[in-house]
Amino acid sequence: MADLLRGIVARNRAGKAVAIPSVCSAHPEVLRASLMAAAARGVPLVIEATSNQVNQDGGYTGMRPADFIAFVRGIAAEEAVDPALIVFGGDHLGPQVWRNGLAEAAMQKAEAMIAAYVQAGFTKIHLDCSEGCAGEPPQLGDDLAAGRAARLAAVALKAAPDPAALIFVIGTEVPPPGGARADDHGDILPTTPQSAAATLAAHAAAFRAQGLEGALTQVAGLVVQPGVEFSPMAVHHLPMDRDPGLAAVLADWPGLCLEAHSTDYQHPAAYHRLAELGFAFQKVGPALTFAYRQAIYALDALGREAGWLDGPSIAEVMERLMLAEPGYWQGHYRGDSGDLRVERHFGLADRIRYYWPQPEAQAAVARLRAGFAGRSLPEPMLWQLFPAGVIARAAGMGRPMAEALVLANIEAALAPYFLGSPALGQGALDRQDLSGKEPRP
User: How many independent structural domains does the chain possess?
Assistant: First the structure.
């Protein structure tokens, strides 16, 4: 799998506008739709788990690294997806989950997590020690962050069944306190070449200090901010005419590409442009669970209008859950741009995704599906809330239409990431400008 990613990096560095999508989600329907989309196109896909989602203690999903891989492979087997198309990655692997404690204790936990990830079969490893622990600044300087990252790299190489199979991603684009900074045009400021070069230099020195100079060739990704971001209710789109000059920083690192986080909700053309700018690794997550919720809410509304569903709506169930346990959304939504309820249900950060695994939410979705079982769903009914491309794609899946519509809507949100591959349907998010701004040429 490392060779697959290295090949993509090599082609990108040779001037080809190629990139691989990296799906960062543990939602089963998101994973199913993403795997189906990759298989239909015959192209590879990275599936990533984050450190708070999946770790040696279970994370918020209750899954350890080996459990997550088994979970994804089980879905792939159900859909007859070639396992050779799947690369497993770990995102933001560092002490963040335990950062409320002292740094050394948090780093020991991070070491155990990294070892569990590589032993389970994760090969794309994002080393991220940028956030401070108890008594430290919220964001650490390059030298300390790189030193801790190199320490974790050493653990990964020692624990991995095949150390040569690992590739490392370094750096971070976690916004500074107060959020990402915008320029006079309202565009997000990209990482400067000087800052990116400093991050690379610090990691090179730290790897050498750990005796890992040979492993520097396994550093394949540098996370930087290309100028894309989303707030709760708006998207900052990539200025298509801007080149922040970050690819030039990679000149002395032939096996390295740029990685972009927070690329969700961009205009489709942005992903090709990002690839042209050197971003061969492009990550997506909230936009896919947003598409899941969008489809579930649409089906709920249609089913109630048709008289097929009764009892509390899906939104009512989810509202109760979010108010009962507000920890997953408080601090992310402030109501500055509207009603807090609106942000809880429709915010682009999609914090509602943390509540779908709860038994009450699962039961509500099961009742929804049962209400549609065996029913004909005429197109004039579906036209009210689903795009024509999603309806057409769903109709060709050979599944119950309600189930297929959910999967097709997720696929449509992911489709622009498959550069050069045929689209399998156009969804509500494909052309939607959620910022209210016209895209800059």
Answer: 2
Final residue of a structural domain among 222, 257, 284: 284
Same domain, 348 and 204: no
Q: Facing residues of 167 across strands?
A: 124
Per residue in 254-305, pLDDT tens?
999 999 998 999 999 999 999 999 999 999 999 999 999 999 999 999 999 9
Domain-embedded: residue 164: yes
309 in the same domain as 217: no
Residues 94 and 174 in one domain: yes
Domain of residue 276 covers 2-284
Predicted structure pTM score: 0.92
Measured from the Cβ of residue 272, the count of other Cβ atoms closer than 10 Å reads: 16
Cα–Cα nearest to 285, from 311, 264, 313, 260:
264
